[in-house]
Design goal:
about 170 residues; alpha+beta; 3-stranded antiparallel beta sheet
Length: about 170
């Protein structure tokens, strides 16, 4: 007897609050039931003034999370405000910088734009903030101890108990 496990979890831990709780609309469901906002607590964080840690804190304090690069490139945040569709924003997707091989995070446009690939940046650089949250249907639990996933052409394994695991 074989068992099939289906999960809609792709590349991020669930947000603390749901889209409904935050009253954020679903702009695009191409990557699942994810909502986004750029106006967080009545503030646009669009002056390229947030480090990655500050961006994470802004989103977390609102009950949300940073959007993944995959979500941004699939336009889940398109039109979510503050003029950030064509501006550089932090994502929660970890990476390693080219050349000096430092740990970093992918930075990309607030919505997909051809010719502007995600770039790995060190966390102390300053960029804009766009936050995402999950609709309850987007949060599923897998009983597998590891999953292989592919994000933006990168292949990775998420292990149980590790950051980003389910």
């Amino acid at each position: 007897t074989s068992t099939t496990t289906t999960t809609t979890f792709i590349d991020h831990p669930a947000s603390a609050s749901t889209c409904d709780t935050l009253s954020w609309p679903l702009y695009n469901t191409a990557v699942g039931d994810v909502c986004a906002a750029s106006l967080i607590d009545d503030t646009c964080h669009n002056a390229e003034s947030a480090s990655h840690a500050a961006a994470e804190a802004i989103c977390s304090d609102a009950g949300a999370r940073l959007c993944s690069a995959n979500e941004l490139e699939n336009n889940v945040a398109l039109g979510s405000g503050c003029g950030l569709d064509t501006e550089r924003v932090w994502s929660q997707t970890a990476c390693t910088t080219e050349g000096d091989a430092l740990p970093g995070f992918l930075m990309t446009k607030g919505a997909f734009e051809t010719g502007f690939p995600a770039r790995c940046k060190v966390p102390d650089e300053l960029y804009n903030v766009r936050c995402c949250a999950d609709h309850p249907a987007a949060v599923a639990v897998s009983t597998d101890t590891s999953e292989n996933i592919e994000i933006l052409g990168y292949s990775t394994t998420i292990l149980e108990g590790q950051p980003g695991s389910v």
